Amino acid sequence: MYALYLSATVCVFSVVRAYGEKVTMGDDGGRRGWLGFAVLLLGTVVVAGRLLSVARWFFGWRSRRVVEEVGRRGVALPAFKLARRRDLVYRLTHDPGLLAAAGVYARKNGVPGEVAKARVECYAREIVPSFDAFLYFKVGIPLAARVVRSLYDVRVGPERGLAAMDENGASVVFVMNHRSNIDYVLLACLTADRAALTYAAGEWANVWPLGPLIGGMGAFFVRRGTGDGLYRRVLERYVQMAVEGGLTQAIFPEGGLSRDGRLREPKLGLLDYTLRHFDPRTRDILFVPVGVNYDWVLEDHSLLQPGGPEAGIKGYGGFFASTAESVARNLIRARRGGSFRLGIAAVGVGEPVSAREYAASRGISFTELGREDRIEAVGDLAQLLMRNIHASIQPAAVPLVARALLQAPERPVARDALIPHARSLARGASLDYEAALQTLVLRGLVSVAREGYGPAPNSEEILTYYASSANG
Predict the structure, then answer these.
(1) Contacting residues for 198 by C-beta, under 8 A, at least 6 apart
(2) Which end of the chain is least crowded, N or C, by CB within 10 Å?
(3) Phi, psi torsion values for 69, nearest 5 degrees
(4) Taking a C-beta distance cutoff of 8 angstroms, is the pair 179, 297 a contact?
């Protein structure tokens, strides 16, 4: 590393000296001035190099201390999780399968093999995260917990699937419905005393400074819908390495946020990558369904606009601007009601589905199936997981009140009829329907008349969004 700094300094010194000679046109005083400047620059680079080495040692030592601390609390982090990013990138770029894929890519596109290998390395560096235990356990999780608790009353329903994280020898993959970007935070906080989650983040998040922060928290970035076959091969191999390495992962089978409150059809890409080389004789994979529901989704306005948050605005900035506008609008509205509290965030964790048992019960081997048959088998499993996710979604009061209001045969609806109807949809859950009704009135979604309550003008779309999420 020091040789690199020295070489760079020599190059800079040479350039500066040549430039100084040109400028001073032989003036000895001018050359001495440039020489002094170059020596100063050399010293600065050497000192910066030493400081960088010390900083790297310090942050590595700090992270190792956290790993030891959480280990004493029973959080065992697999070696793959703690591996250095450059080592994982090296493993990917020297993987025999990816080298063969790079060769095929080079022949097909008429480019040198080194160009194809460089592309593999570029994709590997884009995908592979750089996990920092200190950032995750000492900064991210405490901050996330504080933010979530300041916004929501978090209620965790059945937690049957969390016991799967304590089973030795199995890779745990949480499969979760996607209602809000808070979903990541909720699940990370819920599992922080058992594991550090690795999850797939969209490429929209891979921008500075958000990208390094999310990568440090263990996320890997995924390009959705890319037609680049070589990129997909690199992503596939990384996902397989993560499963083989025993990482606890979280994926959203829907592939994106729900735009209407309902579960979307599952996308099979990541599930297929996970199962394509699954060998039931080695490490099992446990898919744990997680259902989330909210009284108030921060991004609801941006999700309901035609085309979603990305509509009409090019680049990453459009997504952030649209989402931030919706979040700010909702927080301001909530503050006018007296606080930033947004009601309930309900989480349910269902029974895990063992890939080993699933394959044995159907007499299939994912590794031996042809592509079409494998995709069909993965699709069947995905549908089962989506049903389990749906069954895990817990009731929330605002969605139930919204559904009761929209189902009413006549409007306005008297309070004495509206609240009992919402309660009948709740499957026995104890919820505050009065507060939910006040929230809808506060948001201007429900109007109040002498005869009762009814949808406010231009509010049926967003009321339908919440009513569709009610799992009553």
Answers:
(1) 81, 129, 131, 218, 219, 220, 242, 247, 248, 249, 250
(2) N
(3) -65, -50
(4) yes
The C-alpha atoms of residue 231 and residue 186 are separated, in whole angstroms, by: 30
| Bridge partners, residue 29, by sequence | none
Residue 440: the pLDDT is 95
121 exposure class (CB count in 10 Å sphere: 0-12, 13-18, 19+): middle
CA distance linking residue 330 with residue 296, whole number of Å = 9
Q: Which two tokens stand for residue 449?
A: 């008349």
Q: What is the pLDDT of residue 124?
A: 94
The pLDDT of residue 7 is 53
- CB-based contacts of 132, cutoff 8 Å, min separation 6: 59, 63, 216, 217
Evaluate the CA torsion angle 142, 144, 146, 152 in order and state its sign: negative
DSSP states along 198-233: EEEEEGGG-STTHHHHHHHTT-EEE-TT---HHHHH
Return the pLDDT at 23: 47
Which value, to the nearest 10 degrees, does the dihedral of the CA atoms of residues 179, 185, 189, 194 take? 90
Segments in the chain below pLDDT 50: 1-6, 9, 12-13, 23-26, 57, 312-316
Residues 106-155: pLDDT tens digits?
999 999 999 999 999 999 999 998 888 998 999 989 999 999 999 999 99
Q: Domain 85-298+342-392's class?
A: alpha beta
Cα 223 to Cα 144: distance, rounded to the nearest angstrom = 25
Q: How far is CA 215 from the centre of its chain?
A: 10
The whole model's pTM is what?
0.84
Q: Rg of the Cα trace of the chain?
A: 27
Q: What is the DSSP letter of 413?
A: B
Fold classification of 397-469 is Arc Repressor Mutant, subunit A (1.10.10)
**CA angle, residues 430, 431, 434, in degrees to nearest 5:** 135
CB 452 within 8 A of CB 418: yes
8 Å CB contact between 449 and 457: no
Give me the pLDDT at residue 313, please: 47
Identity (one letter) of the amino acid at 226? T
